[in-house]
Write a structure and sequence with these properties.
The complex is a heterodimer of chains A (299) and B (359). In chain A, 31% of the residues lie in helices and 23% in strands. Chain A is an alpha/beta fold and 299 residues long. Chain A has two domains: 235 residues, 3-Layer(aba) Sandwich (Rossmann fold), CATH 3.40.50; 49 residues, no CATH class. In chain A, the strands form three sheets. A six-stranded mixed beta sheet of chain A has the order 6-7-8-3-9-10, with helices on both faces. In chain A, strands 2-1-4-5 form a four-stranded antiparallel beta sheet, with helices on one face. Chain A has a two-stranded antiparallel ribbon with strand order 11-12. In chain A, helix 3 packs parallel to helix 5 and helix 4 crosses helix 5. About 7% of the residues of chain A have low confidence. Chain B has a two-stranded antiparallel sheet. Chain B is mainly alpha-helical and 359 residues long. The chains are: A alpha/beta (299), B mainly alpha (359).
Chain lengths: 299, 359
């Protein structure tokens, strides 16, 4: 019961944004999409969300193309965390998060709603500002509000905070569009940790667009790399994130080293490749940083 | 600051208390209604009004004096009913449009629906005879309202058609196109006003300044349309809340965005076209009512929509009472009253709003 893209293409007025992409988000996994600006990552996410219909191929959930799903049905199966949006009216943080329960308003008891909202606020570290007005928040805080909103939508009726794995009603999917943009490093990890946990504990299929290779390596089960509207590779994390492929796609020499302590893979980018002279990196000027004083380095 | 932040927050957090506010508003509306029934050229005491109402409903078997009774029955009650329905329609339309466009300054007047309705009416008054020939008399009193109505529908259709791109409607584009259509419609009204003769000019001012005096036998069907439209629009509260997050977000949360947008704009066009057909252009109610409601009960559309209907009705009945009393024995066009009160009031609200959002 995956969310599947079948040879999907999308073009706007002769402009090909995506071509021939076959990809699936499986229940219980985190699939991270990497790619340079304009590679079509957001378009891919919008197609998967059912926001737009592909011009070629189809997006399929439970053997049914998304176009055959009613918006209300679909809302009970996948939730989307968009990039923070404008809001001209002074809703409180709690009000906005509560909107995530809208797909269940006919069937969800008020107490369950409140319970889930409280839990989502806590997960997004918003409990203290639950009554603040949304328009007055910072960009990162707004982003977290949308995470909490996506979570209460995702939890549906049976993923009560205490419930274990749930198979009832089919698998659910969480789509994250550059979720870490604007967040400080602690909240970035907290957010990705929450997404990871949804996948592991509740069998949610997570698709996340990320820019940070190291976060992708840390949280992804599989990685898909897009370049100019085409899928370069989609494979288990470190099989996809080959330095040569990354260097080519991102036009920047990228190396993979292992952290001496944890053996975690660490990706290092050394600069920008000039005019496609493959592999020739320009190192950042060594005089750019002040030399480390000897007595500090020794400590 | 009309209300301290903490109070507003606690109001939005307890819907039951918000319900209480709506109830209080309904009571205030009823009181205004009774007072307004008493005010005007013939001074009728509040007690007499109540006694007459009780008599009409059948609670009491003793009416009031013949003259006052007839003033109430034939003049003031119909007028109050028109005020109630039109005020509720305009207030609610404004609230719905503001959510649809995600823009707190949207209003039936601003997106050109009212102006186009007026253009339709004015065109029919001045040129109806010329274009329709003998059919004009056959249409009788329905010709002008139907034209007003047609103008509103046409404007909405054009706005929707032009602002659609790749199957999506861009709200900002829609607003701008509305502004353009509004100015085109006003230019058209100007041209027809220039062409009109003396008799026609008199009825033209009715459409431009607005009045609750009634416009003939087409009023009743128009009022019924408005009531039906209001009943539909008032159910859209939660969907409009989701709409405020953005169209994509509303879709993610299960709203069939395109069809909802279509139904909501059509309903607004019908309601506003009908309102203009009965009363001419009455500005600012659609702008003021939702803003006032948000100041009192917060931005939750589940309460703002019914609240705006109540508040719009209240504003219009109040404005009508003022219009009838202020230049006795004559009567001011009600559009002038809402304009004179509404304009400055709106400015003050905008300034408050700006200050609050900066915090």
């Amino acid at each position: 019961m995956s969310l599947v893209l079948e040879q999907v293409g999308f073009s706007v007025r002769q402009h090909v944004l995506l071509a021939d992409i076959s990809l699936e988000v499986r229940p219980g996994e985190v699939l991270v999409v990497l790619g340079p600006n304009g590679a079509g990552k957001s378009t891919l996410l919008r197609l998967m969300a059912g926001e737009m219909a592909p011009t070629q191929g189809q997006v399929i959930l439970d053997q049914r193309p998304l176009s055959a799903w009613r918006a209300g049905e679909l809302a009970q199966r996948r939730s989307v965390m968009p990039q923070a949006s404008m809001l001209a009216f002074p809703f409180s943080v709690r009000d906005i998060v509560a909107l995530g329960r809208a797909p269940y308003r006919r069937i969800s008891p008020r107490r369950l709603d409140q319970e889930m909202i409280d839990r989502a606020l806590a997960l997004a570290d918003l409990t203290a500002m639950a009554n603040r007005a949304y328009p007055a928040l910072s960009g990162g805080e707004k982003q977290r509000v949308h995470l909490a909103r996506a979570l209460v939508q995702l939890w549906g009726m049976d993923m009560a905070p205490v419930a274990g794995k749930s198979e009832a009603g089919g698998h659910r999917f969480l789509l994250l569009d550059e979720p870490t943009a604007g967040l400080d490093i602690a909240h970035q990890h907290a957010l990705l940790g929450v997404a990871r946990q949804q996948a592991m504990d509740y069998g949610v299929g997570v698709l996340a667009i990320l820019h940070d290779f190291n976060q992708a390596a840390l949280y992804a089960d599989r990685v898909a790399i897009l370049k100019a509207g085409r899928l370069v590779i989609c494979a288990p994390t470190l099989q996809a994130m080959v330095p040569d492929i990354l260097s080519d796609v991102f036009q920047s020499p990228i190396r993979l080293i292992r952290d001496a302590v944890t053996q975690q893979p660490v990706f290092i980018s050394d600069g920008h490749i000039r005019d496609g002279q493959g592999g020739v990196g320009i190192s950042p000027p060594s005089s750019g940083l002040p030399p480390v004083p000897v007595h500090q380095a020794a400590q | 600051m009309s209300l301290p932040n903490a109070v507003r927050m606690s109001l939005t957090r307890f819907p039951s208390r918000t319900g209480l506010v709506l109830l209080v508003m309904a009571v205030i509306l009823l009181m205004t209604l009774v007072i307004s029934l008493g005010a005007g050229g013939a001074d009728i005491t509040t007690m007499d009004v109540l006694r007459h109402l009780a008599f009409r409903i059948g609670i009491s078997d003793q009416g009031i004096g013949d003259f006052n009774g007839r003033v109430l029955d034939a003049l003031r009650l119909p007028r109050i009913v028109r005020g109630l329905v039109i005020g509720a329609s305009l207030g609610l339309s404004g609230a719905v449009l503001q959510s649809l466009f995600r823009n707190p300054i949207a209003d039936p007047g601003i997106i050109g629906v009212s102006a186009s309705a007026a253009l339709g009416a004015v065109a029919m008054i001045v040129c109806g005879q010329m274009i329709l020939g003998s059919y004009y008399t056959a249409m009788g009193p329905y010709g002008v309202p139907v034209a007003a109505f047609g103008g509103a529908l046409l404007a909405t259709a054009v706005i929707r058609k032009l602002s659609r791109q790749d199957g999506h409607t861009d709200a900002a584009m829609m607003l701008l196109i509305g502004v353009a259509i509004s100015s085109i419609a006003w230019a058209g009204v100007g041209v027809f006003t220039y062409m009109a003769d003396d008799v026609q000019l008199r009825s033209l001012t009715f459409w431009q300044m607005g009045a609750l005096g009634g416009n003939g036998p087409a009023d009743v069907p128009a009022l019924i349309i408005m009531v039906l439209g209001v009943c539909y629009l008032v159910t859209l509260g939660q969907a409009m809340n989701l709409f405020l997050l953005g169209e994509a977000e509303a879709r993610h949360l299960g709203v069939e965005v395109e069809s909802l947008k279509q139904r909501a704009t059509m309903a607004v066009a019908l309601v506003v076209g009908a309102a203009v057909a009965v009363s001419g252009i009455i500005g600012f109610v659609g702008l003021m009512a939702p803003h006032l409601m948000r100041l009192v009960i917060g931005p939750d559309n589940r309460f703002v929509l019914p609240g705006s209907a109540l508040c719009g009705a209240w504003l219009l009945i109040g404005a009508d009472a003022i219009a009838r009393v202020i230049v006795l024995p004559a009567e001011l066009p009600i559009g002038l009253v809402t304009g004179m009160v509404g304009g400055p009031f709106f400015l003050v609200m905008l300034l408050q709003e700006r200050r609050r959002r900066r915090i």
